[in-house]
Every structure is written in structure tokens, then in C-alpha cells.
Amino acid sequence: GQGTGAHAGARQVRQCNSSHSDRPLLSAIVQTFRDGTNARQIVRRLRSAAGDEALEVLVNDDSRSEAAAWLAVLTGPNDFLVSSPNVHEIRAYNRLARMARGEYLLLLQGDHCLPQGREWLQTGLGLFATFPRLALLGGQMGFDEVPLRKRAERVSWGVPPCRPIPTRVPRNGMAHRDAVGAGFMFVAGVNIGPLLVRRSAFLLAGGFDEGFSCAGEPGIQLDTDLSLRLWQAGHQVGLYTSAVSNGVGGRKTRKNAEQKRLRRINDAINGARCARQLRRHDAAAVTAANAELEAAPDADSLRSDELRVRGHRPPGTCGEE
User: If you average pLDDT over every residue of the chain, what do you get?
Assistant: First the structure.
């Protein structure tokens, strides 16, 4: 029957005491293969940059050999470890992106050296707040041509030896406070590591194309393909200086003869496919978006200053603190 009295019809609300967050701001996804010695550096600096409440960390141990090293540092209420049978990056990122709950995804690799402090990440998130159509943000290299293996750095902007980013966010009130004056430009495509992406846009685009490699193979040009598909869907793709470096412990794929062979094959096949996509790409949309920015008076100095201020460290001297 119907309740009576002062509390009749009152809504009951469940109070949760768990520190787990169902809707963190950021989901950091780390694809790792025998990078356990770098686990502490990555996780500690992620927490320093984002804070526990805004962050969840999802790690794919693709070698099934370093769970102990990662579990030793994945102690937060929003930390998860997946053990995979060497599926490689495309399938790992797609699987964990579907598992993630954050508004933004931060795609990392286990050999990354993250900057100390918060500025590198907060600047990236501030760029999304400044440009509502921005769906994908690279922190390493960006380009308007397909960056095939032998010429990638020659056709790209970004970290040295690439050309410096020639524009910055205007100081005219349009920008989020964390993005004002930051070196930034819109580009046709960006290079993976690191990538910041709106999770909703990533999932609606279908994630990375799993046809770009077989399981266990490097997915070269996966980032170029995703970039061009996001532009075609009406989103924007941009580049900034994250100050993240890679190669801690050495570049494993490039030291393995079979993986190098597969890398060359996939680069040629996938590069040709991306070249066909690029012919359909609306280059005028990139030009129009960049018209909103202002020229950096000294692009080389701006890049050097941002790397220094954001705490860039070469992989060989990354260190724990």
C-alpha cells in the first residue's frame, strides 16, 4: 500500500563512501611491452599532473610479464591493469578506450618520459577548452603531408629536429587561462605519443582502424588515419609542445629485426592508403582554423622556453624525480 506520514514518497539517495570516480576527467591509457622499470616514473608523474580525483590510469601489459611492476604503483581507486597476449598498440588502445570513463583520453607508451609538474597536461586540456571543435591534440609532431618513415621529420612541425610551431594562442580573451600564449597550430595529422583526444569523438570515429596491422604488429600511420577521419567528421586536429619524450629503455620495435621488417611493410601499405585519404582532405579547413591564431614572434625561442618550463627530459636521463 501507499506510505503515510512525514516521509511518505520521499526519495531515498544512496550515499557512496568509495573514492572511486565513475566519471574522471582524464583516462590515461598506457600501452607497454616490457617497460616495468619505467612504471613508477609514469604513474607518479601522471598523478602529479592530473591529481587522483580527476584521473584514472589504464595499463595494457602487452608482454604478460610485468604485472608485478605495474601493480606495485597502480594503487589508486581508479587504476586498472589489463594483461594481453601481444596484441600491439591499435587493439590495445581501442580496447582500453572502450573501458575508459574519462572525458578525455591520454594515449601514452610505456617508454615515455613525462615532464615533472602540471603545466604540460593542463595546457593541453586548456586547448580543448579554448577550441570546442578540437578532438585530437598531438604533443610531439604534426604534419600536412603523409609522414612516411624516411621523411617524417622533414615534413613535420613539433619537437627538434622538426620545424618549430609557428603560431600561438592569441592573448585576446578567447583562450582558457592555461592555453593563453601557448605554441599551437592546426594540422592535417599528428604523430602518436602522446595524444590527447576527446573520448566521445574517438569512439564515434570507431577508434583506430584495426585493418592497419595484424595483432602483434606495429600499426604505422594509425595516427594519420585517425586524424584525417576526424577532420572529415567535422572535428579539428592540433599540435602543441607537450615536452614528453620517448625511448626510455631503448626503442624495442626498432631493435627487433622482424618488427622492423613489418614496420617498413606497414608503413608503405598504410602510407599509400593515407595518401589517398589526404587527397580528399579539406586543406582549406586547416588554413581557416589557423587564421584564428597569431604568429609567434620567435618560434624557436618559444619552443625552447616551453620545453624548459614544462620540464622536458631526454629519455636517457629521465630519472624518477
Answer: 92
> H/E/C letters for each residue in the chain?
CCCCCCCCCCCCCCCCCCCCCCCCCEEEEEEECCCHHHHHHHHHHHHHHHCCCCEEEEEEECCCCCHHHHHCCCCCCCEEEEECCCCCHHHHHHHHHHHCCCCEEEEEECCEECCCCCHHHHHHHHHHHHCCCEEEEECCEEECCCCCCCCHHHHEEECCCCECCCEECCCCCCCCCCCCCCEEEECCEECCCCEEEEHHHHHHCCCCCHHHCCCCCCCCCHHHHHHHHHHHCCCEEEEECCCCEECCCCCHHHHCHHHHHHHHHHHHHHHHHHHHHHHHCCHHHHHHHHCCCEECCCHHHHHHHHHHHCCCCCHHHCCCC
**Bridge partner residues of 186 (DSSP):** 238
Find the Cα–Cα–Cα–Cα dihedral 187, 133, 308, 251, rounded to 10°: -60
181 backbone dihedrals φ, ψ, rounded to 5°: 80, 0
Contact 193, 244 (CB under 8 A): yes
> Residue 275 — pLDDT band, cuts 50, 70, 90?
very high
pLDDT tens track for 167-188: 999 988 789 999 999 999 999 9
* Residues 124-150, mean pLDDT to the nearest whole number: 94
For the segment 65-114, what is each residue's pLDDT rounded down to a tens digit? 999 999 999 999 999 999 999 999 999 999 999 999 999 999 999 999 99
List beta partners, residue 59: 30, 81
- Asked if 236 and 181 count as a contact pair (C-beta separation under 8 A), the reply is no
